[in-house]
Amino acid sequence: MSEPKKLFLVDAYALIFRGYYAFIKNPRINSKGLDTSAIMGFMNSLLDVIKRERPDHLAVCFDKGGSVDRTEIFEAYKANRDETPEAIKVAVPYIEEILKAMHIPIMLKEGYEADDVIGTLSKQAEKQGYKTYMVTPDKDFAQLVSDNIFMYKPRFGGGYDIWGIKEVQEKFAVEQPKQVIDFLGMMGDSADNIPGLPGVGEKTAKKFIAEFGSMEGLLANTDQLKGKMKEKIETNKDLGLLSKKLATIMLDVPVTFDEKDFELNQPNIAKVTHIFNELEFRNLLTNFIKTFTPSEENISINTDSSNQKPKSKPKKIDADSNQFNLFATPGSGNVSENEASSEFKTIANTNHFYQHANSPLARKLLLSKLMQQNSVCFDTETTGLKALEVELVGIAFSFEKNKGYYVSFPENQKETQAILEEFRPFFESQTIEKIGHNIKYDIKVLSNYQMPVKGKLFDTMIAHYLINPDMRHNMDVLAETYLNYQPVSITELIGKKGKNQLSMREVSIEEQTEYAVEDADITLQLKEHFKKELESGNLTKLFNDVELPLVSVLTAMEIEGINIDIPFLKELSVALTNDINRLEKDIYQQAGEEFNISSPKQLGVILFDKMKLVNKPKKTKTGQYSTAEDVLSYLAKDHQIIRDIQEYRQYKKLQSTYVDALPSEINPKTGRVHTVYAQAVAATGRLSSNNPNLQNIPIRTKRGQEVRKAFIPRNENYVLLAADYSQIELRIIAALSEEKNMINAFKNGEDIHASTASKVFNVSIENVTREQRSNAKTVNFGIIYGVSAFGLSNQTNLTRSEAKELIDTYYQTYPNLKSYISKQIDFAREHGYVETVLKRRRYLKDINSRNAVVRGGAERNAVNAPIQGSAADIIKLAMINIYKHFEKQNFKSKMLLQVHDELVFDVHKTELEIVKPIIKFEMENAYKLSVPLDVDLGVGNNWLEAH
User: Fold this and answer.
1) Which of 38, 166, 596, 828 meets the CB 3.0–4.6 Å disulfide criterion with 862?
2) Residue 299: what pLDDT?
């Protein structure tokens, strides 16, 4: 007997919304400024279903015009829903276009919801012998489940749960799935504005279903109820019946299941490819091709050019004394018609001339040509990713579109050094501009061979970061987006991660040449494109005066590294283990049992089922109790166990992230830790760091502070000096808002928080209490981030009404500040972006959204981005000026770290009194505001002592 055919019915809007909100903290924005999160999320889900299940038949069901029948009987049905985000409105036509190209039927009917269309089709298909899977996270569909109809429920974090009759019975405590209608009718649904029975929640609804079986059974037996519950239900019988009707999925929509129309056929790959390229869905295109193609060999190049190895390569010229020709006509081998019509240009279908210079004469000719150029792109190929630990395998050069040259290096490091020395005149030339993509990496690699890179720089990654800070900046994406060119991927060359991955040295010289020179060639072309965009966006000055000079500063800091006290870290690890063990015992004692404190699921059960710390605990999308930090913070002031859990988590993170991890980050050659600074990550302009991440070392807790003790000077002849901007963000907001009360307080050297408390609480500054100052401090910093009365009450001992009153009084005290915030939001609404003092832009695509939550986030960014960004701009200027001063004076002292508003230096003791005033002056005068900048200096034998 053959297996029943499978039909999958996809609830379109449920997956579209789910996809959109999955990316809400990190939206997918393409180069055109289009938010593609909803499209990407939906398509990822759809392709996942197709790959996992290989359905015979599939359709995607949409709402059209809402439910006329439900609105007629209850006008407020779904009336409380927020306006659909613009990104979703824009996404739907694209999704429909993709589905048509995939030959997947779109099912909708004017005046009906997708639920009703799916319900009708699933019942029709069941009669025709199909097993139907309803792809949706919406619990309402559980009422349709039968022996042959299932819910295919996306699981938060990946994967799916299949709900059959048994799962529905367990989830809703019903005997048969149809009773889910009664369950929903009794408890109501706030999302759909179904009122339900007053006073009936989930537990009560389950209890009533168990006792009476249905809504009608409950209403017919109200005499068995007692007290207020009896009164409420008898008074609201009609409301109960109405709610049940609203919750019932219709099964008579005028749509027809025709199995021929619903067959999952081969898509039009060319059309889908075109749409995905337009949307800049590189990885999704690869996923799509793999989903619908049994093997990569079957992919036709005229329909797709992704994930392809070059089919025809140019004839190589191994340069020797009589073959090397720097002026040759570009050759490309034979490019077929199919290749020429490929969606992307590739190395296989583009005329190019990439040459390997592998003899002394060839290299001499190349150097001669390089020295005649105004600007050259170069790109290093290495044995790994850690720039200060790798070996050089080759360098590619390009100074003309579609042309370039590759110099390879042997494994013998002395021979490599000798060959590299031939190119010293080029790298040390002050007149030749050096172009690269993340050029800091290449400069650090060359530093291993004592080869400095001098002259003006141009970094395409940083240029694009300024042009479009919210987009990804890797070269492959930029090439596809701006040049319609798809480079050979590194995984094609050396394979994916794992034991079978090759080293670059194991790749043939021919493939090295093609891959490396292509990178240099494409980067050169991107430079020309971005140079124009920087000019049109008024970003050239910021790029040339701040971001490019900073590359040299950060490179020097990363190469220098910092010394670590390993014995101290070992002692601290032991102390933390003792702290963790003590806290474990205290937590177990308060909970009355042992459990896995690090398991959110187990912790949630203890706190909210057993200890019942709150009446209605917040749940995650998977249905388990949330024990996230924001949830625990709200409860901490009332419960010792929560405070202990927070401390436990802090210690565990400190131990794993820093105390035990820092020794493994020590460079075996230098014996120091070399963090890597990222210029092109934070949209505000702030630097981030990794390997290790020094930006997140806690400073407010005692144990967190102790981690800083592990950072020590180079040797006994040095001390650490920490220079920290005092309240720089508050000074900036005072200056930008022209708030005179604040400006005067800073000019007079007053404690700004005490000054604010004095004005807000109407007391003399001498009589301000510690609590008043603390509350004023919370408001001062909170205003920058749009703190609400609710948020302020959570951070202080104030009630919500007291917090509201404090905020209102604050704005009355600082009227210009309130006016500035309004003006910033208005500017953002009109222009779509805000700017820092150095004209760094933060684009805010959601500033005019009709969705209040989304718009509110953009409004907060409109206020805090210029403040955070201006602080980042100012400290970058200070770093550049200090670095130049140190270089000019040839100091032994070095700048080592930048962490938020703080700079850390390794200072030779003989230079201490010389460099202190230099550092203070350059930091305080990096940028002139109407408010003086103030810098605190500290000196010590470790970072904590200096801070």
Assistant:
1) 828
2) 34
